């Protein structure tokens, strides 16, 4: 009833041609549920219509806005309507038409041909903070769009590929704070300004050729700016050679400041080479700029690293898979060294798989990584790669420490067999190691630091005190493990040189092998730990670009060297490998030779054990056990009876 009185008054004004009142407003004071057909019909003098803060309004009938030739402002805001209003019969003749459809949370889509017939002039569309989930095909058909603002439509996930088909423009597009995952690849050729702030799901840009007029971009991720700036610098910059850069519409007029030559002189074909410099289009402005963690470069950064990373990951994978295959298929009794070696090989295999994932993504995105950076770094793949890196690296360090401590313990207590480490104890130690390393690798996935900070998917996020403490703890764990390894090898070397030790092998061969083991550990841990600790305290001494050299060439050294130093180069491993190959019909003579040596050794030890004293019977067994390690290879005279 109130609405009828209001509209009757409006029609009376229109019929009396009283142009002093050209605005109509339906506000919260008017309780209305529907607006009927032709409610706003043939109002020749009305220039503004505002329907605001009427949550009781649930439906606007078709042709409710009919023949409003002077309408230049229409606002339908904060209502309860659930169907997009019919605007196709307004037929406004006013230029710079402004449309506000905002704060309507029950609107879920913009339908096909939603604005055709609204106006034939350029329009500014403010369609923000609605419940839109989709903008359908040909939604903007038949329109000339100056500015299109879709910001704060938090449920908007899809803009159809042909949503802008049949439309001219927009010249400015704002999709900030939406749930869009990508933009349409067609229909954005006229966009001069793109705004996509806080659009965290917009991880992939459309084909950049579809944004060929773009001059300013305000985005969420620095890597997108890298992609745009790289494309812009490599694309033709001559305006005369690119007719798609012809500017039109209100926004374009504001920027250029004068009408086109065609409007002034007609379609004339003339060209002055001396004016080329005056026709260069302005440089693309884009924010945010690339930061220290995400420079505008490929994952590998350097060409030689791209080659090295493949060589290293193949070596690590093949070496550790070989160790696991031989140890798992061995018919010999499972000993503590073999048990721990399986864990070490698996940990180093994780590092190899991590490098393989990084190398593969680098190869697939070579030359255009910036376009895929956010999709990779925030995706599942980067999380898995980072998890494998931290878990494999920490488990490898933990296992190396366990192996070294176990060797030191066994050698220094060679005459006390009851104190030797058994499989039950070794299993308990490794369970603890797995739990600790899994916890360290899972924390970045749970918000403590992050794997998506850098393209190499390592936890380099130290923005919060908790993240900083996590990274420092991780580094101290590695440094502490290295010190333990060094200390144990020093004790082992001291022990085997002790003349009172019953099975001493005081030769330079032992020292050389220990030096190799310590040197590889030092080469792997020292450079990375030094620069990483300084960066963790927010005093970086090296850029992310240069740190990739350390991460590719030094970080995986242990993963490549361990299978050879701790397994493949040992006699016990070679024996298992030849026996495995003999079962396939290869190297049978070598396998028989190793079987003969093992049989003779067991018989000699058994006879000595039965004839000698209890004291002397323990020494050979301890020495035989020691001989399975590459760095402690006793001479024959060490076996005393």
Automatic annotation (TrEMBL):
Receptor for lutropin-choriogonadotropic hormone. The activity of this receptor is mediated by G proteins which activate adenylate cyclase. It is a multi-pass membrane protein. InterPro entries: GPCR_Rhodpsn, GPCR_Rhodpsn_7TM, Gphrmn_rcpt_fam, Leu-rich_rpt, LRR_5, LRR_dom_sf, LSH_rcpt. The keyword GTP-binding does not apply. Keywords: Cell membrane, Disulfide bond, G-protein coupled receptor, Leucine-rich repeat, Membrane, Receptor, Repeat, Transducer, Transmembrane, Transmembrane helix. It is found in: Cell membrane. Coiled coil: none annotated. The chain crosses the membrane at residues 307-328, 340-364, 384-405, 426-449, 469-496, 516-537, 549-569. Residues 319-566 form the G-protein coupled receptors family 1 profile domain. It comes from the Eukaryota. It comes from Cyprinus carpio (Common carp). One of its GO terms (cellular component) is plasma membrane. GO terms for molecular function: G protein-coupled peptide receptor activity; luteinizing hormone receptor activity. One of its GO terms (biological process) is ovarian follicle development. Belongs to the G-protein coupled receptor 1 family. FSH/LSH/TSH subfamily. The gene is LHCGR. This is Lutropin-choriogonadotropic hormone receptor.
């Amino acid at each position: 009833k109130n609405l009828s009185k209001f509209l009757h008054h409006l029609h009376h004004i229109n019929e009396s041609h009283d142009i002093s009142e050209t605005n109509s407003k339906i506000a919260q004071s008017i309780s209305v549920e529907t607006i009927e057909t032709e409610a706003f019909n043939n109002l020749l003098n009305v220039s503004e219509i505002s329907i605001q803060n009427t949550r009781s309004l649930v439906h606007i009938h078709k042709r409710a806005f009919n023949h409003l030739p002077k309408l230049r402002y229409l606002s339908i805001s904060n209502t309860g309507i659930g169907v997009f209003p019919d605007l196709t019969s307004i037929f406004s003749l006013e230029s710079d038409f402004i449309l506000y459809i905002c704060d309507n949370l029950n609107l879920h889509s913009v339908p096909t041909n939603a604005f055709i017939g609204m106006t034939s002039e350029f329009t500014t569309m403010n369609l923000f903070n609605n419940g839109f989930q989709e903008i359908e095909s040909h939604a903007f058909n038949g329109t000339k769009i100056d500015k299109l603002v879709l910001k704060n439509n938090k449920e908007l996930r899809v803009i159809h590929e042909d949503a802008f088909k049949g439309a001219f423009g927009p010249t400015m597009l704002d999709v900030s704070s939406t749930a869009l995952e990508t933009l349409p690849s067609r229909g954005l050729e006229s966009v001069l300004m793109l705004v996509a702030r806080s659009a965290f799901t917009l991880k992939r840009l459309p084909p950049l050729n579809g944004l060929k007029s773009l001059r300013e971009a305000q985005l969420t991720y620095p890597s997108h700016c890298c992609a745009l700036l790289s494309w812009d610098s490599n694309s033709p910059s001559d305006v005369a050679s690119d007719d798609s850069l012809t500017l039109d519409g209100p926004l374009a007029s504001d920027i250029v400041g004068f009408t086109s030559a065609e409007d002034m002189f007609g379609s004339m074909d003339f060209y002055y080479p001396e004016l080329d410099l005056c026709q260069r289009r302005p440089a693309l402005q884009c924010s945010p700029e690339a930061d220290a963690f995400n420079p505008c470069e490929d994952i590998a950064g350097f060409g030689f690293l791209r080659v090295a990373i493949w060589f290293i990951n193949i070596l690590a994978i093949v070496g550790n898979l070989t160790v696991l295959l031989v140890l798992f298929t061995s018919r010999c009794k499972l000993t503590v060294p073999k048990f721990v070696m399986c864990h070490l090989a698996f940990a180093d295999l994780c590092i190899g798989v991590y490098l393989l994932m990084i190398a593969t993504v680098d190869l697939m995105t070579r030359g255009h990584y910036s376009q895929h950076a956010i999709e990779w770094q925030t995706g599942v793949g980067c999380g898995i790669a980072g998890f494998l890196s931290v878990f494999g690296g920490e488990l490898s360090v933990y296992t190396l420490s366990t192996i070294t401590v176990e060797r030191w313990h066994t050698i220094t207590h060679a005459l006390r067999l009851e104190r030797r480490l058994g499989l039950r104890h070794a299993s308990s130690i490794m369970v603890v190691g797995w739990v600790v390393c899994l916890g360290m690798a899972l924390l970045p996935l749970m918000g403590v630091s992050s794997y998506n900070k850098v393209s190499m998917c390592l936890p380099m996020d130290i923005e919060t005190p908790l993240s900083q403490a996590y990274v420092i703890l991780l580094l101290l764990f590695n440094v502490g493990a290295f010190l333990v390894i060094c200390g144990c090898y020093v004790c082992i070397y001291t022990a085997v040189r002790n003349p009172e030790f019953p099975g001493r092998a005081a030769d330079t061969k032992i020292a050389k092998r220990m030096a190799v083991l310590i040197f590889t550990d030092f080469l792997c841990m020292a450079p990375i730990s030094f620069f990483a600790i300084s960066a963790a305290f927010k005093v970086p001494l090296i850029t992310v670009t240069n740190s990739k050299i350390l991460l590719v060439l030094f970080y995986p050294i242990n993963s490549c060297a361990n299978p050879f130093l701790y397994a493949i180069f040992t006699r016990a491993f070679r024996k298992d490998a030849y026996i495995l190959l003999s079962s396939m019909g290869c190297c049978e003579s070598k396998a028989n030779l190793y079987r003969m040596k093992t049989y003779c050794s067991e018989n000699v030890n058994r006879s000595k054990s039965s004839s000698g004293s209890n004291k002397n019977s323990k020494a050979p067994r301890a020495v035989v056990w020691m001989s399975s390690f590459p760095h402690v290879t006793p001479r024959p005279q060490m076996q005393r009876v």
